[in-house]
Write a structure and sequence with these properties.
Length: about 525
C-alpha cells in the first residue's frame, strides 16, 4: 500500500535524524573544555621577559590529564624557563616532563593528577618568554587533549585558544612621549576600548584608555569617591576563579578634570599619577590572591578620596583528598559511612558535592555522608570538594554492596543459607509424615483402635510442627531475615527438634505396642 510505504519511509528518516541529533548532542556534551593561554596578547620590547600561563576552562566537567605541543616563532621569542611547581600547576605527576626547544620553537608536555579537577582557569604551566627580536609572535597549540576524570578516558577538549604578541624595538617604544596614551604599557593599537566584553573574557585586549575632552564645572568641594563597576568581577566580596584582562568603568561627575588609577595588593592606597580624563580602562590579568583596584578623581579643588575595589582570584582547586568507607568498599552494609576531608589554602572550602551513580547531587558542608540504602551491586560514588571561588577537586570511588543473605554453615563445600535450610527442613518433615501415614495404613486392619489413637496423637504433634514451620516461612516471606528474626527462628527450630524427637519416640513405642 503506497500510503503505508510513505509512512514507513518517513518514520525511517525521522529515526535517522533523531539518532543523529542524539549523537551530536552527546558529542557536544562530552566536549566542553578549552585550552587557552593567558595573557592572550601583549606588546613588549626587545630584551624583556614576560610570563604566559597555560590554562584550562573545563566547562564544568572533571578532568585529570592534559597534553599539548606549543609552537612559537624562534626568531621573535625564546623560552627562558618553564615553571611546573605546585604554585603553577595542578598536576602532581608527569607522563612527559615539560620540555622546550628554542632551536625548533616548540614546547610540549603531558601531565596528570590523581584526582579530577573542575575550574574556569585551571593552571597547567607557567612559561617565561624572552623577547628576542622585533616582530609579531603567534603562539599556537597542536596535538592537544584533555581527558575526562570519569574513568572513560574521553577527550573533552572542544577549543584551543592561542596568543598573539608584538615585540617592538626599544628605541621605537622610548620615542613615544610618556604622556601620550599610545605609550601605555602592553597596549595594542589595533583595537579600541569598548564597554562590551568580547565573547571570551581572555580575548579582551589591552588598549590605551580613551581621553575625554570637555570643559569641567567649577566647584567648591573635593570630588566624591568614585563608584567602580567591573563586569567580570561584579562583586568585590566574592572570590573568582578566572584570571584575565578586565575592564573597569566609573561615571565622571561634571567637575572632574583628572583620574588616577593603580592596582596592587594594598587595601588602602592613594594613587597620584594623573592619566587624564578617562571613564574606563582595561587592566591586565592579576595572579592568584587578593588585589585592589584604586581609582581617584581630581577637580579644581584637588584630589578627592580613593575608591578601593577588591578583586579576589583563586584558580587552584582544594587540596587532594581520599574517601574512606566505614565498612570497606566491598561490604554487605547497604549504607556505609563515607568520610572525606580537605581544605583550600586561598579562598577556603565552601562545600562538598556528593553524587552516586549519576543521580541527584547532594550539597553539604560536613565531611562525612551516609547514603540511602543501596541495592546489591557496584556503585560509583563521586565526591567533589568546592572552594569559595568555584574550583573543584574530585574524587571517585567504587563501592560494591554484597547480597545481605549469608550462609548459616558449610557442609562439604556446599553453602547452606537460611532459605535453603528451611526448605530442607520442610522436605524432611513431609517425608517423616508420609512414612508415618504409610505405616499407619498398613497396620490399620489389625490394630484399628490403637492406630486411631496413635494417628490422633501424631497429628497433634505434626500440627504443632506445621504451625512452627508456617511461622518460620512468614519470617522469610520478604526474602530477608534480620538479627531478631534469626534468633526467633533458632528458638522455633529447637522447639521443632524437641517435637520431632517426641514424635519419633511415640511412634516407636506405638509400633512396638501394635506389633505385640
Amino acid at each position: 500500500m503506497p500510503s503505508q510505504k510513505i509512512t514507513c519511509s518517513a518514520l525511517l528518516r525521522f529515526s535517522v535524524v533523531f539518532l543523529t541529533l542524539v549523537l551530536i548532542l552527546r558529542a557536544s556534551n562530552a566536549q566542553a573544555a578549552t585550552l587557552f593561554l593567558s595573557p592572550k596578547s601583549g606588546v613588549f620590547t626587545v630584551g624583556k621577559t614576560f610570563d604566559v600561563d597555560v590554562r584550562v576552562d573545563s566547562g564544568g566537567q572533571g578532568f585529570n590529564s592534559a597534553q599539548a605541543t606549543l609552537q612559537f616563532p624562534r626568531d621573535v621569542l625564546n623560552v627562558q624557563s618553564i615553571d611546573s611547581s605546585a604554585v603553577s600547576t595542578i598536576f602532581n605527576f608527569w607522563l612527559e616532563q615539560p620540555t622546550f626547544s628554542n632551536d625548533k620553537g616548540i614546547i610540549s608536555f603531558l601531565g596528570g593528577t590523581t584526582d579530577g579537577v573542575v575550574g574556569a582557569s585551571v593552571p597547567l604551566l607557567k612559561i617565561t618568554f624572552v623577547a628576542k627580536g622585533s616582530g609579531d609572535a603567534q603562539v599556537a597549540a597542536s596535538d592537544a587533549a584533555i581527558t575526562a576524570s570519569d574513568g572513560s578516558g574521553t577527550n573533552i577538549l572542544s577549543n584551543v585558544s592561542g596568543a598573539f604578541f608584538s615585540v617592538k624595538p626599544a628605541v621605537e617604544v622610548l620615542a613615544a612621549p610618556s604622556s601620550s596614551p599610545a605609550a601605555a604599557p602592553a597596549s595594542i593599537s589595533t583595537a579600541q576600548t569598548t564597554t562590551t566584553l568580547l565573547a571570551k573574557p581572555s580575548e579582551l585586549p589591552l588598549v590605551a584608555p580613551v581621553q575625554i575632552k570637555r570643559k569641567a564645572v567649577v566647584v567648591k568641594n573635593l570630588p566624591e569617591k568614585p563608584k567602580i563597576a567591573v563586569a567580570i568581577y561584579p562583586d568585590p566580596a566574592h572570590w573568582y576563579n578566572l584570571t584575565t584582562n578586565y575592564l573597569a568603568q566609573w561615571q565622571l561627575p561634571p567637575d572632574i578634570t583628572e583620574v588616577s588609577t593603580a592596582v596592587n595588593q594594598e587595601a588602602v592606597f592613594n594613587p597620584t599619577l594623573s592619566e587624564g580624563l578617562i571613564e574606563a580602562k582595561t587592566f591586565p590579568a592579576v595572579k592568584e590572591g587578593i588585589w585592589y583596584l584604586h581609582v581617584r578623581f581630581k577637580n579644581n579643588v584637588g584630589w578627592g578620596p580613593t575608591a578601593d575595589y577588591r578583586i579576589a582570584i583563586d584558580t587552584i582547586p582544594p587540596l587532594s583528598f581520599t574517601t574512606e568507607s566505614s565498612a570497606g568498599f566491598t561490604t554487605d552494609n547497604p549504607a556505609p559511612t563515607l568520610t572525606f576531608k580537605t581544605n583550600d589554602a586561598l579562598s577556603g572550602l565552601q562545600q562538598y558535592l556528593i553524587r552516586i551513580d549519576g543521580g541527584d547531587t547532594i550539597a553539604q558542608r560536613e565531611d562525612s555522608y551516609i547514603p540511602p540504602l543501596l541495592p546489591p551491586g557496584k556503585h560509583i560514588v563521586t565526591i567533589r570538594a568546592m572552594d569559595n571561588a568555584g574550583n573543584i577537586r574530585e574524587n571517585n570511588v567504587d563501592l560494591k554492596i554484597l547480597s545481605r543473605e549469608q550462609p548459616l554453615f558449610v557442609i562439604g563445600g556446599l553453602k547452606i543459607s537460611k532459605s535453603l535450610f528451611i526448605v530442607m527442613l520442610v522436605i524432611a518433615m513431609i517425608g517423616a509424615f508420609a512414612a508415618g501415614s504409610f505405616f499407619y495404613r498398613a497396620r490399620q486392619k489389625q490394630t484399628t483402635r490403637k492406630v486411631v489413637i496413635a494417628e490422633r496423637d501424631v497429628m497433634n504433634l505434626f500440627t504443632l510442627v506445621e504451625k512452627d514451620v508456617d511461622k518460620m516461612l512468614a519470617y522469610y516471606s520478604d526474602n530477608n531475615i534480620d538479627e531478631r528474626e534469626a534468633m526467633e527462628m533458632l528458638t522455633i527450630l529447637k522447639k521443632i527438634k524437641d517435637n520431632l524427637q517426641k514424635t519419633q519416640k511415640y511412634i516407636l513405642e506405638n509400633i512396638k505396642e501394635i506389633g505385640d
